Amino acid sequence: MTEQSRYDELVSRITQANIDYHRDDAPTISDADYDAMRGELARLLDARPDLASGDGSPLDKVGGPLAEGFGRITHALPMLSLANAFDTVDVTEFVASVGAEQDILAEPKIDGLALSLRYVNGLLVHAATRGDGAVGEDVTLNAREITDIPQKLPSWAPDLIEVRGEVYMSHAVFADLNADAAAGKGRAFANPRNAAAGSMRQLDPSITRARSLSFFAYGWGEVESSLSETQFGAMKLIEMLGFKVNPLLKICKGAADLDAHYQVIQQARAGLGYDIDGVVYKVDDLAVQERLGFRSTTPRWAVAHKFPAEKAWTRLEAIEIQVGRTGALSPVARLQPVTVGGVLVSNATLHNLDYIRGRSSDGSEIRGGVDLREGDWVEIYRAGDVIPKVGAVDITKRPGTSRAYEFPDRCPSCGALAITDKSVTYCSGGLTCPDQIVERLKHLVSKPALDIDGMGAEAVIELCEAGLISEPADIFRLKDSLGVDGLAAREGWGVQSAARLLTSIEAARTRPLSRVICALGIRRVGQNTARDLANAFLTWERFAGVMEGLCLDHSLAGIRVAKAMAASGASAQKMETEAWSIVARETIGVEGIGPEAARYLALAFSRKGDLSRIEALASEMTVTAMEAPKTVGAVAGMTIVFTGGLERIGRNEVKEIAERHGAKASGSVSAKTSLVVAGPGAGSKLAKARDLGIRVISEQEFFDLIES
After folding, report:
1. Residue 675 and residue 640 in contact, taking contact as beta carbons nearer than 8 Å
2. Catalytic annotation, residues
3. Predicted confidence (pLDDT) per residue in 571-599, tens digit
4. Using CA atoms, how far apart are residues 3 and 179, in angstroms rounded to an integer?
């Protein structure tokens, strides 16, 4: 890629990110990714200033385009953004640039929507968002609905003053808002910042009022007379005018002092009850501010020291056990809510007992061997969109009453014995366990399985709690047990939605063998393994017959293994694994089906409770046979990877088509890959295919190939 092409790509992506964040209140990338793109663009322009077009680059602009439906207000003084500091080196450079002898005011950087409030003769005359820095949206009516914003100032206030600050939403209000959204009463938001900005851009002020927004003042724009000789003094005066000013403001001197207060604020972050994403440093002496002046979009006398985008400290309030679809008992950390990487986090995975004890699966130490306990002060981190995890523990803040966590030896849902297999503990209750039933049913109706449209996780939970479904077959009995009228009478349902769901359920009675095997939710049997089994056995009858004979075959294999390995002193676990390997190889005989999958298939078909439910499900369905994969054809014997967006057909369906034509569908590109089918948005897999010299074709070319 040429430097000009990279410049154009960065400009396009940054411009779109500004629109998503500033105008639409729906960012599609993290702050860290955005900052990284701006940094790369700045470095590129430093080396090649000729790359910039006549319109300049996004680095020369503030904010984003204005939203439709609002009047425009031109700011008397521009509302600029702030330069960023990401580490102590950046902070030290900032201090040196303004003068090491200067007092510097440090305050939390509120993660909300910037607002300018103009008062004339003590009355609020208009409120405007930052907009593009020069012109903002007129949100005066909405600002009047925020109780933190005074409608009238004291009689001694300047005749003209613009107070600037940040509109934000507290964590408590945000939680209530999204709880309402989950109940079908409005839109859900990813984080409080988006919710606050979206609430301010409502054409109906009553919606803004209902959202209970808050406001912190951080500065001023046009003002009739000087407020003070210092930033701190001016903010205290603004506080006396009736505005909330953040209580964590502090005068610091030097980089070390700033860093110490930065650490204090970062540690306090989780307990504030609202989002902050860094600490702002401003030269306190207003005369020095004036002398230092401004760059094109930022003041030279201020900088925002950003928090690490994907990390935050908070309190581990409790450790709870969740029972998953396969019966795994998964410990989950319940956290004091804190925003990490742009998402408000209140839960984090704790993996298993070893992880809680500070050990990895191979016995080595993690977190320096420090265990996790309820009440601990912990670091939370995210990487991309993965589930948040617990990192370090601040042992100095551990409560004196804390106790080591004891993992349950019984399933908290059904009370069945909990069995530990390697590092994972499982409920032995199978489909008699209520929590497993709910998770299995969620999986059964999902798109990769039976794909029952209109029956999402919430519907499954509701019907289970009402006692209307308690096993897979019950879903197909809803038409008789409840009917359209009975379902429509339930809260949140209507005649049309009830009818659509029951129609979708009837359509799901007929599904291919691969989907049905996947729908069973057996551990180690996902989509790919289900397709392998289906392509090998072709019909439900053949598949079920072999599965029911697995346990006997395992017993016979176990005897053979025991005799063969007795003299070697092999462990019981090794003997067990070898026995299941024989069963996988000789009884199932399907490539890719190993001892683990064989073992869990046998378990599902040997427990009476599970088997009866599997048989009941099969009796309600027409399980269509698989077509024997072709051994000749354009793609027979190929390993194909599908990547990017597919426009003609779904990903699962196209994989099934490829396998019917004798190909193997893989999820990753390697030297063994024969062909890559790339659609719009293809990324790393496409790049790797090109690096390896693998043939790449479009979706249409793939269908032309198999139809030729």
Report:
1. yes
2. 109
3. 777 888 888 888 888 889 888 788 888 88
4. 47
